[in-house]
Amino acid sequence: MNPLALEQNEKIISVNPVVYEMLSELGKRIYFPSKGILSQSAEAKKLAKKFNASIGTALESGKAMYLNSVMDSISGVSPNDALLYAPSQGTLELRELWRKKNLHDNPDLEGVACSLPVVTNGLSGALSVAADLFVNPGDTVLLPDMNWDNYLLNFEDRCGANLQYFKFFAGDGLDLDAFRAALAAQPAGGKVLVILNFPNNPTGYTATEAEGTAMAQALLETAERGVNVIAIADDAYYGLFFTPDAMKQSIFCKLAGKHPRLMAVKADAATKEVYVWGLRIGFLTFSVGGAGENSPLYAALETKASGVIRSTISNACALSQKIVSNALNNPEFYAQRAAKVDLMGRRAGKVREVLDSHAEYAQHFVAYPFNSGYFMCLKLKTVNSEVLRKQLLTQYGVGTISITATNLRIAFSCLEEGEIEELFALIYKACCDLTPA
Questions:
Q1: What is the pLDDT of residue 282?
Q2: What CA–CA distance (Å, rounded) separates 386 from 28?
Q3: What is the mean pLDDT of the chain?
Q4: Closest alpha carbon to 241 in 355, 371, 123
Q5: Mean of the pLDDT values across residues 243-265?
Q6: SS3 of residue 35 by DSSP
Q7: Measured CA distances, 9 to 19, 117, 295 (Å)
Q8: Which range has the worst mean pLDDT, 56-65, 104-113, 127-136, 344-353?
Q9: Residue 138's pLDDT is what?
Q10: Residue 186: enclosing H or E segment and its boundaries?
């Protein structure tokens, strides 16, 4: 094992040896090449006052060399900020700004020891880095039966994990008994990685405060009986809460720093929170019981995450990071964000109004609970989801997503409020086409 990896492993073990047990074999081996080209270039940047011939970039007149045809498309950002490499862990400015935003949105995190966020290539990149750090082939990953299909690609197909599912809904809320039973089945002395996705994709449901507390308690009890728990809060759609009952802070708040055997990982992104899908800026934040603020354990995890990033994409786009930093620094940021949440909430409210005012729709479909996010999901009673999807697409020019044989996902995020009533009328009509009297 590389001495740099051993050095980071020793830092982790010195604070909490259980965290070292949680790491995958790659997680144990990975390191950031801090004594190679990057460190020598950093040292030269500080000390090479005469000539600096260490960096693999091209400079002209003391700044990044550029083509006018490139910079003509980028206004208000300097060539250095737009074109040069960013650090593998992300720019320090953006990392600190995102932590500040998370504290603003999640006041329960005030005073809780966490790592500084590491910048990833979107939310998918955050999950990928987490999987590399913690998942060995055959490890158990527990997730709801209502889930985003990229989990399968990442954890099962790419990393070889053993996926286990718990039933997400019972009636008008979460099936907490199913969640508890799935955790109870995990053997003491073992390891389980749990996906907690709120607002949920595909259903658009966020746990209530009581449900979130119950889930956190179940995870804590699992750790207390000797299971190593890595709980990933997938907060991709964080902040898009439309009803008073939806939990307003990330479930990460209920897990961070709570137990030495409970590693809380916050995977979030500017993608939906800042409405910059293609800029591909995500984040990973770690917290575990027994590690204080500025702990060497967090520094080691940040270093290992940076090593994964360095070995794959090298770094997230510097221009994207600067754009997001500028947005977070804008005094109008929170007001602008609130206006968009209000707009999305009105669309969700219109969906509910349409469904409530058309009792005949229940002959063919009903809505799963939804109170947040981009989506809602229909439970079909009379037709196959894929058959209905194709009927809607070919006969009515309507695009939807077939999740399972009985579940159809509707993204109200991309519909104008005035389009929603006609959409559901067409879904009902297509169902009637496929189930003639």
A1: 98
A2: 43
A3: 96
A4: 371
A5: 98
A6: coil
A7: 10, 20, 13
A8: 56-65
A9: 98
A10: none
Sign of CA dihedral 186, 295, 310, 30: negative
CA gap 252, 109 in Å, rounded: 9
Question: Do residues 406 and 366 make contact, with C-beta atoms less than 8 angstroms apart?
Answer: no
pTM of the predicted model over 0.90: yes
Q: What is the pLDDT of residue 215?
A: 98
Q: Where does the pLDDT of residue 351 fall: very low under 50, low under 70, confident under 90, or very high at 90 and above?
A: very high
pLDDT tens digit string along 204-248?
999 999 999 999 999 999 999 999 999 999 999 999 999 999 999
One DSSP character per residue, 113-181 reads --PPPEEESHHHHHHHHHHHHH--TT-EEEEESS--THHIIIIIIIT--EEEEE--EETTEE-HHHHHH
Residues 120 and 282 sit within 8 Å (Cβ to Cβ): yes
Q: Would you place residue 55 in the very low, low, confident or very high pLDDT band (cuts 50, 70, 90)?
A: confident
∠ CA 211-212-217, rounded to 5°: 100
Q: What value, to the nearest 5°, has the Cα angle with vertex 276 and ends 270 and 278?
A: 110
The pLDDT of residue 254 = 98
Helix axes 176-184, 209-224, angle to 10 degrees: 10
Phi and psi at residue 303, to the nearest 5° = -65, -45
SS3 of residue 403 by DSSP: strand
Residue 35 in tokens: 């004594």
Give the position of tokens 């790592």: 115
Among 76, 231, 90, 204, smallest CA distance to 148 is for: 204
d(CA 183, CA 179): 6
Give backbone dihedrals phi and psi of 334, rounded to 5 degrees, phi first.
-70, -35
**Is 24 strand, coil or helix?**
coil
Going by C-beta distance under 8 Å and a sequence separation of 6 or more, which residues neighbour residue 153?
A: none
Report the pLDDT averaged over residues 110-119. 98
Please indicate whether residue 43 or residue 351 has the higher confidence score (pLDDT). Answer: 351
Contacts with 268 (C-beta within 8 Å, 6 or more apart), sequence order: 102, 123, 126, 233, 235, 236, 238, 250, 282, 283, 285
Q: Which residues contact 50 (CB under 8 A, 6 or more apart)?
A: none
